[in-house]
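Record format v2
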Amino acid sequence: MPLTLEDIARMSGVSRSTVSRVINDDPNVKERTRQKVLEIIRTVDFQPNMAARGLAAGRTQVIGLVIPMAVTSIFTDPYFPLLIQGVSSACNSLGYSMMLWLAEPDYEQRIASKIVYSALVDGVIVASAVMDDPIVAALNERQKMPFIMIGRLLGAPTANYVDVDNRSGAAAAVEHLVRLGRQHIATVTGPQTMIAGYDRYVGYLEGMERAHRLVDSDLVVEGDFSERCGYQAMQKILLYHPDAVFIASDMMAIGAMHAIHDAGLRIPEDVAVVGFDDIPAAVRAIPPLTTIRQPINRSGAMAAQLLIDIIEHPTPEPRRMLLTTEIVIRKSCGAQP
Amino acid sequence: MPLTLEDIARMSGVSRSTVSRVINDDPNVKERTRQKVLEIIRTVDFQPNMAARGLAAGRTQVIGLVIPMAVTSIFTDPYFPLLIQGVSSACNSLGYSMMLWLAEPDYEQRIASKIVYSALVDGVIVASAVMDDPIVAALNERQKMPFIMIGRLLGAPTANYVDVDNRSGAAAAVEHLVRLGRQHIATVTGPQTMIAGYDRYVGYLEGMERAHRLVDSDLVVEGDFSERCGYQAMQKILLYHPDAVFIASDMMAIGAMHAIHDAGLRIPEDVAVVGFDDIPAAVRAIPPLTTIRQPINRSGAMAAQLLIDIIEHPTPEPRRMLLTTEIVIRKSCGAQP
DNA sequence: GTGAAAGCGCTAACAG
DNA sequence: CTGTTAGCGCTTTCAC
């Protein structure tokens, strides 16, 4: 039989309210009383019943992480694992627990209602939402549930978000290829329904424009972040003889490198390749992949931190954070011998 | 302001209890009444407050998934993502939510108490616990919280578990290599503190014994399931000139293949390689990796199903399930031209 | 500073 | 079959 506040109160010779105050760090407790109560709590390893606390206080000390499974083959890419780890780690250190919902399309609507109305969580992190995401829509509709997005969303200007500076990163990739003297710079984009896919494409366009290069639409193919798609997209692009390609994710880049290889071309001599993400596999690719590193783990941790800040210190102004990327030069771009 | 049972009761002209019965599928409700209430619930998209339900009923409709982060570099291996996906999927279809705790060593004790005493979850799945796991200890101590393990645990004979038949799988790998005429069959094992690592090693020994082969201790090196470790372990083994190796995980096998390659040897001509897991990367290895496929996703789903069955239909007898493996023959073992 | 008392929204006997 | 009633364990006024 688990102990209750009442038990602790009896054991320490105070009232239930006082124990509650101690647990919640209420300053209105005499230091000696606090110590005595804490002592008892520690020795019997008391854990308050979260359901009761949730009901009485309206806060559960749980945050939700929602990953809509609509678009990607989520779990062949190490992006989500790293993100989850970041969120979890921040939760651990801030005393929260994490509810994880992988929202399969069939259940998306039901999950959305559950998240918003069932008081299971104090707030939610939405990872890589697509435009018109029903979960984001539900969250927006009902103002009371705090939420933050990983990756900003077009048309949701008031929302909180943590994002990576995808545009600058992509532009830097292109500029790097230009600097190396490449003439026909292609790109395999991410899905244009996802903000990261969109932004990286915009960054590509910016980089090209800044270098006064014309964009050849034959050299632009949309992918879906998967390796297989990278392979296929690259095959299409190769018909038009690029000498360089910026690919919006490392998984796709690995697929694309196979396509280049299978076409009998050399990397980087015939085609230089730059990816995006810097997943662990990038360094082991043959040749090692030059890529734009984004701090995935930190995105998750930061989102959790900001969300918890919103929950605990609600203020009207939005919380926003743009994390920077960094180019990691390896052999696939031809900059290194 | 979210709706409550009372609101729904008023709107449908019945009492709160009746609405509660409808929500909980109590048979003692007249069909017409049920329909009317369901209708209202649907139109206003009512979601019961889970905190209140948790408090009153002692059940939250949430299960926990705990992954102790002690041993492995969890998220470079696609094992856990797939497992999580399986659990999540079963939860979705059974109307549960999933709490995910990645138990970093620093927080392990606190998380254990929280899991067991705070009434956040109705039960928990413990994935890849190590021997003497403090979380498993806490769970065992307090009988009331239902739990199931992924991978059985030595010395916890009464526990519920879902496991993969690692022993038979490993033995099959060895037998396959024997059948192909290999003489010096080495192995890189998983960590012997993990049941999967242990069982696969035992399977290796069984396979060797059944073929009347002596085990040369120089040809056995313990690894930790990571790619890097696979590389290093293989380097050690290569000093003793094996002509085949069974490697207890595909990630390690990929590392080992690099080591073999870097040593100037050919796969499978000089050294045949068989892995374990059949992760997506196995098929893309060069040459494609022969491996023992285990149903990771299904392990997770099955664990969730069994756990929820325990929660909803508690009976004394333990739930146990052993999933079978299957050998997937590709080029790295030399069976295919 | 501390205690008493009133709920938070739901379930689960218990009547009828 | 349905309504009434008493809590579940906690937070939070409100007194003192």
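Chain B has three domains: 5-48, 62-164+297-323, 166-294+327-333.
Residues 14-18, 21, 28-30, 33, 52, 54-58, 119 of chain B lie near DNA strand D (CB under 10 Å from a C1').
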